[in-house]
Every structure is written in C-alpha cells, then in structure tokens.
Amino acid sequence: MNTLETTSGRVHRANDAPGHRRRVASRIEARVPEVGPDALVIDARALLAAGRFSYAGHLAVLDGKHLVGLVPVESLSVAAPSWPVSWRPAF
Question: Residues spanned by CATH 3.10.580.10 within the chain?
C-alpha cells in the first residue's frame, strides 16, 4: 500500500495527501549557486560572495539545463583562482 504518514500522525495515500506535491516542490526548489562546466574558481568565489542562496554547501555545475556535477564549496578554499571548478584534489 502506498501511504504517507504526516506529522499530525494521520495516514493518507501518497497521491491523496492534501498539498503533498506542493510541499515537496517547495523543498526542492531551493536557490543554489550555479556555474557552467568551464567556470573558474575565481568566478565561483565571486558568485558565492555576491549572492544569497538558500543552500550553498555545493556548487551546481550545469551544462545548459542539465546538472553535470556538484562541487563542495570547501574545495574552492584550497584551489588556485585560475583552476576550473571541476578540479579534483589528490588524496
């Protein structure tokens, strides 16, 4: 059975839950920093400094409208400004 238990303790069929799709959509439509696949670290740092984001733990790397990668923001602190955001540290 396809059910959803809400915080009120009531159980609904997932497709019958009142406002369920609207609540889910509001949680996944967050403002996050986005860069292209050829962006440099210096550009990503400037974007983070200038923007207001609902989540900024990762940069979303987009090729057009397609997500092609996620870059942890911590990796930008150890990268040279001229490096592409897609660089990978050697551990």
Answer: 31-91
pLDDT in tens, 18-38: 565 666 555 565 788 999 999
- As a dihedral over the C-alpha atoms of residue 47, residue 53, residue 57, residue 60, rounded to 10 degrees, the angle is -60
Query: How many Cα atoms within 13 Å fall on the side-chain side of residue 43?
Result: 14
If DSSP codes are grouped into helix, strand and coil, which group holds residue 72? strand
CATH superfamily of 31-91: CBS-domain (3.10.580.10)
Question: Are the C-beta atoms of 42 and 29 separated by less than 8 Å?
Answer: no
> How far are the Cα atoms of 21, 23, 27, 33 from residue 14, in angstroms, in the given order?
9, 12, 17, 32
